[in-house]
Amino acid sequence: MRVNFTVNGRPQEADDVWEGESLLYVLRERLGLPGSKNACEQGECGSCTVRLDGVPVCSCLVAAGQVEGREVVTVEGLADYAKERACGHRSPEGQDSQTGEGTELAPIQQAFIDAGAVQCGFCTPGLLVAADEMLERNPNPSDADIREALSGNLCRCTGYEKIMDAVRLAAARQGEAV
Amino acid sequence: MSTPNGTPTKLTQGAPTKGGIGESTLRPDGTLKVTGEFAYSSDMWHEDMLWGQILRSTVAHAEIVSIDTSEALALPGVYAVMTYDDLPTEVKNYGLEIQDTPVLAHGKVRHHGEPVAIVAADHPETARRAAAKIKVEYRELPVITDEASATAPDAILVHENRDDHHIGHVPHPNIVHRQPIVRGDARRAAERADFVVKGEYTFGMQDQAFLGPESGLAVPDEDGGVHLYIATQWLHSDLRQIAPVLGLPERKVRMTLSGVGGAFGGREDLSMQIHACLLALRTGKPVKIVYNRFESFFGHVHRHPAKLYYEHGATRDGKLTHVKCRIVLDGGAYASASPAVVGNASSLSIGPYVVDDVDIEAIALYTNNPPCGAMRGFGAVQACFAYEAQMDKLADAVGMDRVEFRQLNAMEQGTIMPTGQPVDSPAPVAELLRRVKAMPLPPERQWESSQGSDVRQLPGGLSNTTHGEGVVRGVGYAVGIKNVGFSEGFDDYSTAKVRMEVIGGEPVATVHTAMAEVGQGGVTVHAQIARTELGVAQVTIHPADTQVGSAGSTSASRQTYVTGGAVKNSCELVREKVLEIGRRKFGSYHPAWATAELLLEGGKVVTDGGEVLADLAEVLEGESVEVEAEWRHRPTEAFDLRTGQGFGHVQYSFAAHRAVVEVDTELGLVKVIELACAQDVGKALNPLSVVGQIQGGTIQGLGVAVMEEIIVDPVTAKVRNPSFTDYLIPTILDTPTIPVDVLELADDHAPYGLRGIGEAPTLSSTPAVLAAIRNATGLELNRTPVRPEHLTGT
Amino acid sequence: MDFLRPASWEEALAAKAEHPTAVPIAGGTDVMVEINFDHRRPEYLLDLNRVGELTDWEVGEDSVRLGASVPYTHIMEHLRGELPGLALASHTVASPQIRNRGGVGGNLGTASPAGDAHPALLAAGAEVEVESVRGSRRIPIDEFYTGVKRNALAADELIRAVHVKKADGPQQYSKVGTRNAMVIAVCAFGLALHPETRTVRTGIGSAAPTPVRAKAAEEFLNAALEEGGFWDNGKIITPSVAKQFADLCAASCNPIDDVRGTASYRRHAVGIMARRTLTWTWESYRGTAATTEGAA
């Protein structure tokens, strides 16, 4: 089947999609956007987290056919997404965010690097999408709020302490910027 | 063929500061990893690539009566189906130390999930459907599942006709390796003991559960060879095992390290490497294989489950008299790293304590359970769980404070190990314990707030099981000892190629090694070493591949020590050559070129007095310097097969933990409130990364304390929970704060005085959590992980 | 496999009538796992995401009509007052990402004994609105679960909504898992006080082949509360009454040993949860009653 939808502000079309394919597979193998990761394919790790019409979901559990006509934001588009949010508008054309090259990092991305929250990095894309959305809803989260919001994202390398540091850092920087 | 998408690129990183060792410089691959651009092995993509699929055995132990692939081959979109009969050469087995593992099952399967056939097709679903159409007829055999069934007089042999180098000294062919260690006279020493405690302990099967499943892309080359893009821990070890099975010389098997989504020991053994190469060579097309999580649980070895039998004795004044212990590790169906795990478990079995009279035995079994091998801590983890439980019991028997009892018996520099090897660098065991004990305790009842109970801070968490009812706090301590580097006489070396040249008017160093960056931050440290040694700001890290010599394994806490040592060594050789060029070009202008100690700093050649002699850009103008050199740490020797004596280890690493837990004693649910750690790291080359490693290792230890276990059916030997739904690893709501106190006491034998750090924190965290739970509940708890039914007696 | 994409409820019913084997998919949190892990290859997938009304809810006089696909996140955020037990249960579902996609219709359709919503629905009292081209009917929740992963739906029927009684008293929900988040229930317990009818209802998950009510325990407690005049005098429930209620709840379980827990632990834990949730709800009831009295 054919599926048309918007990814990171750009219209996309995937052809010859097998009906059992997930959104994750289509992004990774058909659209050249492998940033969302395939760690469990059963909704138990959060590595494939994307925003579907603004809402964080596990893209491994969304059937490709279900995204027809909908909007998806992946880690590759996170920097633009955050920038547009900061500017208060969405750029009309949508930018080429396929590679992330030349784009500034979103504050949460920079905070993950600065705080040492990235080791192997496989969980990082999903955590970034989830953490960015949480800070959008809750700019001053308590530690328990951060833990609850990120409880669907497994990380095996860091023990999560530096991820906590990163989210606190991004929240603090966000607070300073306002 | 053309280069696939996802081929790794060089990482070039400047530094706003000096960016040398000791600074918390940031990862050179950090930006790529946060933007989603960093290509992991599962992200590799090639035009016209096929998808590989493995058919695995549905039973644990059986003869294969027949395999019929005809229906699978007939399916449209299928390019190849291969079984044992299709293997191209006489070499059909592989293995890290013992080549006992069939590439595809031959006549017999020995564990649940063993590869039987492989398929290549144009879509993963086609490949799955084709694999499902392969008909395999099994005739089931009785399963060997534990020591009793393995060593029974009439036991079926898991491997007939063993000819490996351990068979001569094991008491039964279903025992892979046995290592006794006898020192002093434990029997006579026991007579001096005023208190003796005995215990039997069980350690469950833990999985590495790295997040990036096994995957890779094999691309056939024009010369009949193959190029494999792969996530592994040791490229050259893979190569050594892959090439013979393909019937190719090693130079025709090119390997490039793709992005690695964590490893923790689980990528030491081969998984899909040979299968992908076989299918690529058979079809002439690139073949990608990506395990899903279900398959990943079958696709790599696990941490050895163990039974541990201990006897400890002490005098009335609290001095240890003797230790007798027996450690039985279940190696599963294939040897993997079992022999080396046995060596570690036995030689580190009494922990970081002074005991002159010991009687130790460790064995690994062959069974029909899933194969077990390397995982962070490697044999030392299981032992630490048991000996630390024993130390608490014995302290209680003597009537001493548990920490003070440990400190009284703690080893220090100069202590003789049970193997007879002296500990010849700092061993601050008592000090580490003092430090964790001195940290302030977290406040009580943190769940209470003006709005009532915050369940997120209580046992059970979001599941709303308690608002404080039944909750009791407990505190526990543990300390551990881990060896660093490959031991027992292994020729453990690394190779580094370092190049220095001027690019765009600036001196740039390029570091090329085959080191597997699995997340640990080796690439960060290599850039730091190059900056320190060569005085440059810009460092380029070349992708790891087999175009350069071996860097050994990213295992055993060894990479910063050994490949870091190799980078340092090659940088020093480059520096000498650069200075030679300088002397040749400018020596006549300034006598200091000949007489002073010269350094490279800030992009310049300077004297040790700080006088600038030349810009590196001038020295290197029109020239480049490149050195590839091997570097090895001091040699070790094998343990004697009867007495276990020998200079077996390179270096030791120590960490101590204090765990604070809150247990819902009625429901048996645990919330770990804090896991404080103190560790000696020798020298923190990158303090941020060091703390990250300690925290990560600590939480893997927490996982196996309270939730992580692969459950194998004792009757069928089948794995019952191969998924992230039922194999649980800690979430961010299960993890506590982890304050870390880093001690830096230099080891003079090691580069920069550093100490390998990655594994030690995984050892002591589990027993500290168990001790805290015992403290809260008063229960004995002789197994890990501890489950709610153990805490409630149900 | 075919992917059916009805744009309306009527189209969905027509598609289900034409292809009774079609597997409905909404949040995908059950169906996609089975597809990804090659456990299931349905002939047809029937996507319900385009049927917008399934994510709507209406708060009526006595009950809430909850569209089958209202995500758990919305139940937590918007229906905490009307459906406190279900809101608490929703909060225990998997992860935030799953709660953003999954809804009660999926729990009911899968009818796993471990589904988190069931004990809350049983305790609150609910009816499942199902429909086919043949017509619509409402199945009382007590008659809905018919076996392990089986429910009372006919092959051509789809779940449209669930009508849950609005809370007329305190409700609680507890679930035991071996992890503090993102965990499947080892067992779960829901309890609702219904002061209007002076009854107590319960729901137990993962401790029997289907979700069940502890009816003997309910009857015992109803009688004990009535006898002691507790609904009126608002006294603390005596420990012996709470204990017997807990024991009867545990006794109403028919659990198995599996990788998530032992049968005896499940029985034990249900008893503990029964006692605790009774204490919490009753304390809350007493607090409310006291406030009401004080105000009057």
From TrEMBL, chain A:
InterPro entries the UniProt entry points to: 2Fe-2S-bd, 2Fe-2S-bd_dom_sf, 2Fe-2S_ferredoxin-like_sf, 2Fe-2S_ferredoxin-type, 2Fe2S_fd_BS, Beta-grasp_dom_sf, Diverse_Oxidoreductases
Keywords: 2Fe-2S, Iron, Iron-sulfur, Metal-binding, Oxidoreductase
PROSITE patterns: 2FE2S_FER_1, 2FE2S_FER_2
Top-rank taxon, per record: Bacteria
Keyword Glycosyltransferase among UniProt keywords: no
Gene3D superfamilies assigned: 3.10.20.30, [2Fe-2S]-binding domain (1.10.150.120)
EC number(s) reported in the record: 1.17.1.5
Ranges of residues in domain 2Fe-2S ferredoxin-type: 1-78
Chain coiled-coil ranges: none
Record has rRNA-binding as a keyword: no
Enzyme kind, highest EC tier: oxidoreductase
Molecular functions per Gene Ontology: 2 iron, 2 sulfur cluster binding; metal ion binding; nicotinate dehydrogenase activity
Listed transmembrane segments: none
SUPFAM superfamilies attached to this UniProt entry: 2Fe-2S ferredoxin-like, CO dehydrogenase ISP C-domain like
Name under which the protein is recorded: Nicotinate dehydrogenase small FeS subunit
Gene: ndhS_1
From TrEMBL, chain B:
Superkingdom of the source species: Bacteria
Polar residues biased stretches: 1-15
InterPro entries, per the entry: Ald_Oxase/Xan_DH_a/b, Ald_Oxase/Xan_DH_a/b_sf, Ald_Oxase/xanthine_DH-like, AldOxase/xan_DH_MoCoBD1, AldOxase/xan_DH_MoCoBD2, AldOxase/xan_DH_Mopterin-bd_sf
Aldehyde oxidase/xanthine dehydrogenase a/b hammerhead domain: residues covered: 35-142
Stored Pfam families: Ald_Xan_dh_C, MoCoBD_1, MoCoBD_2
GO-annotated molecular function: iron ion binding; oxidoreductase activity
Region (Disordered): 1-28
Name used for this protein in its record: Xanthine dehydrogenase subunit D
Source organism (scientific name): Streptomyces griseorubiginosus
Automatic annotation (TrEMBL), chain C:
An example Gene Ontology molecular-function term: FAD binding
Keywords noted in UniProt: FAD, Flavoprotein, Oxidoreductase
Keyword Flavoprotein (UniProt): yes
Top-rank taxon: Bacteria
Residue intervals of the FAD-binding PCMH-type domain: 1-169
Name of one Pfam family that matches: FAD_binding_5
Gene3D superfamilies linked to this entry: 3.30.465.10, CO dehydrogenase flavoprotein, C-terminal domain, Uridine Diphospho-n-acetylenolpyruvylglucosamine Reductase, domain 2
Coiled coil: none
InterPro entries listed in its UniProt record: CO_DH_flav_C, CO_DH_flav_C_dom_sf, Diverse_Substr_Oxidored, FAD-bd_PCMH, FAD-bd_PCMH-like_sf, FAD-bd_PCMH_sub1, FAD-bd_PCMH_sub2, Mopterin_DH_FAD-bd
Protein name according to UniProt: Carbon monoxide dehydrogenase
Organism phylogeny: Bacteria, Bacillati, Actinomycetota, Actinomycetes, Kitasatosporales
